[in-house]
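Human: I would love a firmer grasp of how sequence relates to backbone shape in proteins. Take your time, and here it is.
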Amino acid sequence: MLSISRTLSLPDTELTERFLRADGPGGQHVNRTESAVELRFDVASSPSLPEEVRARLLTRRDRRMTDEGVLVIQARRFREQGRNRDDARARLVELIRGALAPPAKRVATRPTRASKERRLSVKQQRGKLKQARSRDWSGE
């Protein structure tokens, strides 16, 4: 059981782990052991996720999400399989925790007078610089 919050947890049956050979340091040992972990979680058809959390996760523009709604997390940071497994699970928990809270509504604001004046003065300076470049320097 993977605990996300006090009210939300994922059963291990919804997580699929696959172990593969990791690239990187390790010498000859890296060619024989499968220490990297690929953790898959089907967000689209998970009965454990509340509907609004599922919608937030699916609408997030994340390259780890497949077209079918499966979240794929690869962990190969460590040389030990157990640490990589814990790392992948921790990253999944953080991702789901980020989707638990609804995004804050943007409050529409108007630019201040000082910010408008700063913008216009910078535009005037830029225009003067460009105008100075276009002068005829041939001396005629």
Q: What stands out?
A: The chain has a mean pLDDT of 87. The first strand starts at residue 2 and ends at 3. The radius of gyration is 26 Å. The CA atoms of residues 36 and 49 lie 27 Å apart.
